[in-house]
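Supplementary Methods. Inverse-folding protocol.

Structures were first reduced to a discrete structure-token string of length 168. This string, shown here, constituted the complete conditioning input.
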């Protein structure tokens, strides 16, 4: 019942998100529009010097592991400069994070999304609409984030099932 209330109460902006392509730590490009074809996406804007960012990473990794089979994708967008490559990689690998790290060295994506402070979490549904946006990290908000995510994933699964049903 609570999930249904959350599902109905998801705020959705009719404006589609700005597309981008960023490299991961291995140099592979990830295009947001391509990723949204696979399912909902969480974007996490972070930096090596940001303590709340580092505290939030295990929570995001936990969500990713729990919901990746439901087609969730999580991208940690590092907004540090190129000088911080080794530090960012060291942090990422020491935390054994399983979601995908991306680089936004130029700050272009940060500007496109109007990010003024970090960490900032954005949940985007598979139609490309922002359904959740939060600045900062408070552990007590994890339930709100997860409930919103469950609703977005449920809506995605229902939409996908309807498409399958329409096929001859």
């Amino acid at each position: 019942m609570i999930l249904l209330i959350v599902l109905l109460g998801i705020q959705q902006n009719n404006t589609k998100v700005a597309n981008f392509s960023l490299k991961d730590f291995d140099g592979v490009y990830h295009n947001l529009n391509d990723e949204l074809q696979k399912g909902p996406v969480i974007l996490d804007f972070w930096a090596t010097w940001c303590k709340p960012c580092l505290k939030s990473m295990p929570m995001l990794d936990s969500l990713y592991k729990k919901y990746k089979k439901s087609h969730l994708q999580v991208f940690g967008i590092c907004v540090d400069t190129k000088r911080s490559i080794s530090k960012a990689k060291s942090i990422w690998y020491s935390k054994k994070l399983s979601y995908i790290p991306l680089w936004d060295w130029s700050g272009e994506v940060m500007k496109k999304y109007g990010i003024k402070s970090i960490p900032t979490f954005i949940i985007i549904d598979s139609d490309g609409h922002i359904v959740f946006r939060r600045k900062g990290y408070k552990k007590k908000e994890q339930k709100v984030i997860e409930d919103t995510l469950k609703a977005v994933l449920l809506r995605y699964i229902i939409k996908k099932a309807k498409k399958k049903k329409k096929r001859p």
